[in-house]
Write a structure and sequence with these properties.
Helix content is about 50%, strand content about 10%. By secondary structure, it is an alpha/beta fold. Strands 1-2-3-7-6 form a 5-stranded parallel sheet, sandwiched between helices. A two-stranded antiparallel sheet has the order 4-5. A hairpin with a 2-residue loop joins strand 4 and strand 5.
């Protein structure tokens, strides 16, 4: 890990109260358990193509727990751990990755947008949502996340420039997991750190050990507090590693050295945090077993809930887009509902 990256666990430090530290660990284990089960469901044909977050739990959970009630999250597609941490129900995520319309409609009281699939488009959206807070005189902060490859997209640059100019209360987590699908960082950019890109927009940035949940959490708390004080955006680069494939349709053995993966697994954020807790007597095997049993029961209940949702009606694919169907959606909805062609529906109108 670079000497420039903020890290505590690497130095044997744990500057958190026991409650905060164990909350970080529990959330990471919960995210890992979900990820493992999701991959298994995909192999069973019970889930669509799924993007594992294996190895990136510390980065996502650290940001999620730094947010306060009412703060917004604008995730991309790999932020399942982050969405779980801020309260998105497991059953909802399972339906989402089954491409069921019921999975697209998050609970209205939950300040989380649907995951963005087009790369980097979540950045300007997050900035716009952050500025809405100011116009409405709301205290919320908006958090969003992006991968290293996404920082080369135009939407990333435009979003950061807009955030800087208008001092938007937004926190941007750049997860540098080493690869943009199959392209390593050194083939993507000349920058050694993604955080260097923030300087060109006048945005403060921090580089943290993304496998150290404590470092991410404390840096994210500072960024959230700064945004809430009206001091503008912050970019946090979390140096981590994607231990799994890009998606369940990817084979990383085609472009990664097995030795590189082996070295990365030695820095797995979950065993790293567990060791720190064990050393202080804040965790033990009994607590671990109880946690795993609790998480397995939670997942099974959520899976049963998702399985019980009936197949979608065809017209549901447009019902969630707007509060009221517009002139473009109405004929599509009517055609899907009636089973007639769109052309016939237009003629009847």
């Amino acid at each position: 890990m670079s000497r420039k990256a903020v890290s505590y666990l690497e130095k044997g430090e744990l500057p958190l109260a026991r409650e905060e530290a164990t909350a970080l660990y529990r959330a990471m284990v919960r995210a890992r358990r979900f990820d493992e089960r999701a991959v298994r469901l995909r192999r069973q044909g019970r889930l669509g193509v799924y993007p594992p977050h294996l190895g990136q739990e510390a980065a996502q959970v650290g940001l999620g727990l730094a947010l306060e009630a009412g703060d917004w999250l604008v995730p991309s597609y790999r932020e399942n751990a982050l969405m779980l941490t801020v309260g998105v129900p497991i059953a909802q995520l399972l339906l989402l990755w089954r491409t069921h319309p019921a999975g697209w409609r998050f609970p209205p009281e939950l300040p989380v947008l649907n995951p963005f699939i087009p790369i980097a488009t979540q950045i300007p959206q997050a900035v716009g949502l952050a500025l809405a807070a100011r116009y409405q005189e709301r205290p919320w902060v908006v958090a969003t996340a992006i991968g290293d490859g996404g920082t080369s997209e135009g939407d990333f640059a435009e979003g950061l420039n807009f955030a800087a100019v208008f001092a938007a209360p937004v926190v941007i987590l750049a997860q540098n997991n080493g690869y943009a699908i199959s392209v390593p960082r050194e083939r993507q950019m000349k920058n050694r750190y993604l955080a260097e890109r923030a300087a060109g927009f006048g945005i403060p940035a921090a580089v943290v050990d993304g496998n150290d949940a404590v470092a991410v959490y404390l840096e994210a708390k500072r960024a959230v507090e700064r945004a809430r004080r009206g001091e503008g955006p912050t970019l946090i680069e979390a140096l981590t590693y994607r231990l799994g494939p890009h998606t369940t349709s990817d084979d990383p053995r085609r472009y990664r050295d097995p030795k590189e993966e082996e070295e990365a697994r030695a820095k797995d954020p979950i065993p790293r945090m567990r060791r720190a807790l064990l050393e202080r007597g804040w965790w033990d095997d009994e607590r671990e077993a109880a946690l795993l049993a609790e998480l397995d029961a939670e997942f099974e209940a959520a899976l049963a809930e998702a399985d019980a949702v009936p197949p979608p009606r065809p017209e549901e694919i447009v019902e969630h887009v707007y509060a009221e169907l517009g002139p473009d959606q109405q004929p599509v909805w009517a055609a899907l509902r009636s089973g007639k062609s769109l052309e016939a529906t237009w003629r009847e109108r």
